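lol ok so funny story. i was supposed to be doing the assay writeup but got distracted and ended up predicting the structure for this chain instead. priorities right. anyway since i did it might as well share w the group, maybe its usefull for someone
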Amino acid sequence: MALYYLHERGWSALDWGLEDVDVDLDSLVKQRPVN
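and the output, tada:
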């Protein structure tokens, strides 16, 4: 449980700084034509 808690806290902290980037990447991937 401790490792899971620390893991979630770590990703939450990263999400605060990378959330906008993640959204942009998701948009690019979804808009990319599937060959």
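The chain has a mean pLDDT of 67. The chain is about 85% helix and 0% strand.
back to the writeup now i swear
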